[in-house]
């Protein structure tokens, strides 16, 4: 008896492909050390609130991780728009905070409200290679960034903890910073010239202080940020 051929379909057991984003606050440990636990808790709450607002129905907030958030979206384009929105809103609200993001697109295993897999690990490790207010991404995400008109800079193969082979990464700059800003070298806050105490040029970088306490720590040679 002849058999009827059925078109191949994706198994229900096959893990889905999603864009995984790990976003964390820059220099969170220094912020805690200089300004205290409440300031750190407030900063983490601000990141969570902005992430929830930006993400909306566009993806899933998997979990918060103290100074970071893990989220997934259905495509690199949506993921990049969400990451850009989070970084820009931190700037627009004049929080003095910067976020950085690691991004990959691949399969994940969803279990007990969490996600697992190489793409999750890669996104978290890639974030450590991102400059403040940028996204470190794998090639598939970077290609999408280029099509969206975002600035993309190759970082080359990167040795990441837990990965046997180097991973090719690209840095994506999602937004333009105000022309006159200064970074507090003690706690890491990004400040406008109007906000900064004693803005100045040091070693080719513009620095300023968010408070007299940070200025005193810096001048005493006990800077928390090296």
Keyphrases for this structure?
226 residues; alpha+beta; two-stranded antiparallel ribbon; 6 helices; 13 strands; disordered N terminus
Summarize the structure.
The chain has 226 residues and is of the alpha+beta class.
* Assembly state (oligomeric): single chain
List segments where confidence is low: pLDDT < 50 over at least 5 consecutive residues. 1-11
- Strands, count: 13
Identify the strand order in the major beta sheet: 2-3-1-4-7-9-8
In N-to-C order, the SSE pattern is EHHEEHEEEHEHEEEEEEH
Structural class: alpha+beta
Largest sheet report:
7 strands, mixed
End-to-end distance: 76 Å
What would you report as the Rg, rounded to the nearest angstrom? 20 Å
So what's the overall shape? Answer: globular
Helix content: 25-40%
Q: How would you portray this structure in words?
A:
The chain is α+β, with helices and mostly antiparallel strands. It is 31% helix and 31% strand. The protein contains six helices and 13 strands. The chain has helices at residues 28-35, 37-55, 76-92, 118-127, 139-147, 212-219, and strands spanning 17-25, 59-64, 68-73, 99-107, 109-111, 114-116, 135-137, 151-158, 167-173, 181-183, 190-192, 197-202, 205-209. The strands form four sheets. It has a seven-stranded mixed beta sheet with strand order 2-3-1-4-7-9-8. The longest helix has 19 residues, at 37-55.
